[in-house]
Amino acid sequence: MKAAVYDVEGAPGVLKYVDIPDPVAGPDDVLISVEAISIEGGDLINRRLTPPPLPSWIVGYAAAGTVVAVGSNVRSRTVGDRVAAFHMQGSHAERWSVPAERTWLIPDGVDMAEAAVLPISFGTAHHCLFTRGMLRHGETVLIQAAAGGVGLAVVQLASQAGATVIAVASGTQRRSRLLELGADHVVDRAENNVVDSVRQYTHGSGVDLVIDPVGTTLPASLSTLAPEGRLIFVGNAGGGGLTVDLWPPMQSNQTLMGVFMGPLFERPGVRASVDDMLQALAAGRIRIVIDRIFPLASAAAAHEFAETAKPLGRIVMKP
Fold first, then answer.
1. In CA terms, which of 21, 157, 164, 269 is 20 to 30 Å from 145?
2. Which phi and psi (to 5°) does residue 317 adopt?
3. Does the pTM exceed 0.70?
């Protein structure tokens, strides 16, 4: 099969499009013929910073396709099923062997590219907002990097839950799209101070919940929180050190919670939430935003675009 692989970590140009042996489904796995690949933030970080444990290493967390083989222990999937999948490695390829418990059936009418994007973006957003963030109707939530895949999902789910949504992004196109998807206010971080803007929108009281996938914005995020507010940090897209002064949040009885979704996607509650949101996507109640689609053969260019072009939503590749 064809795959995008790398032998040494680094810039997008380390990715090579080559022939490698087809994977084989283990006893608890399904083998997927991949039709769409979602480039996730972790894919970019791994390729840039993580030495590959083996030569010709295939990066990638998320894809969707059709099951072409099932392991001997698998009873929940059959050949021909359309599935979305999450795994810690291997999606940037024509075929992908993943544990059956890390797949979700795709409802009729849902596009493969949208299905590839949904589990990580919306699964993460739902877990951060409701399981960890305990968002309640009428509260106010601030979303950093709201134009990213997770941010766009958080905006929709928070708005539909009856929260007041303050989204942080930059540019007129992003502002319009975020307002369309349910944001009440959009702070253009290139033109306005986020903390000052939040104080204005909340009449000085601060927000009840912050979802921060950036990392380098944590000091500003903390400064926007109301007393006893909650902050969920769910990534380090900014690439810097996660250093904050914890004395002020302690004095304000605030809660800081980290979320790393990798080990959580097999939990029944998380799996069920992704199933529910795939049904919501099929019914048109939520929307997936895809900025651009690249061929898998152009994986280096796709990674370059994802890192430097400030896309609105996800970048998808197709074999």
1. 269
2. -120, 150
3. yes
